[in-house]
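Check my protein:
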Amino acid sequence: MTSLDPKLREHYLTFSTFTYPGLYKQELIELPNDIAELGLLVRNNIIHRTTLAAGNTGTNADLRFGDMTKVPWWRQPDDDVLPTAAAILAEIYRMDNRGLVMDRAVENRPILTCRSVSILMAAILKSKGIPARVRSGNAPYFEEGQSDDHWINQYWSDEQGRWITIDVDGSLSLNEDFDPYDMPEGTFDFPAKAWLDVRVGKVKPDYFYNAGDFRGAMVVAWSLFYDFHSLMNDENIYLHLPELVRVHEFSKLADKQLKEIDDLAELMLDPDANFDKLKEIFDTKKEWRLLSGALL
């Protein structure tokens, strides 16, 4: 059976700025140990912004996410003000001091997106001593004919000797029949493969969609750099990207820059085997490490 390299184990047990749970760590340790049970608990303590926008229609026609008419009209998404696990947990406890509970009233749930759910799930798993990482990419299992930008998790199973891919945020709204707590290989579009497939013409760029109403190779590049930073325990917020892939710069990329991104994607196809090389890039390549957006 495959074992996780001690260096990787230590890395993926380490809390980042974003996954550090602060004073809530003990509460997270005491949560259930079953991964699917944990995921359902997390999912029942947040409202996704698209669910709130759609109201009691679509996947929420049966109110599986709660009655959206009970959410005050002035509530808006909290992602920008709750970027870390500690902040998310503080708001969860502020709104209902019982913390993470299955019967949380819908009006007392923060409004977040998949990145925040993945951050919170990683915080819980790391608190329990389970190596875990956030992954960014695209999910083809929500809408027909496109792959939507999405954030998920992987955790290391010592029992099975492998990384297990899970989608907590999307677990209750899939349009395909698979286990969101042990996703088959190829179910999720990891951005390294997606980028390389687009570059060689294997997949049309417009297949990849970002909720900001963008399509194309730029969307995949965003996910690629989110994923690169996440693999390095730096799960940066949506607004923060390397300058060279922002909207006003992406079309200006030179062939040399595109080739460098190709090389990064090749390494990210197997992030464990190429961890040392990825870490060296992360520690030295300024134009990929220094992000821009908002006040950056």
User: Anything to note?
Assistant: The mean pLDDT is 97. The longest helix spans residues 217-231. Residues 132 and 254 are 35 Å apart (CA to CA).
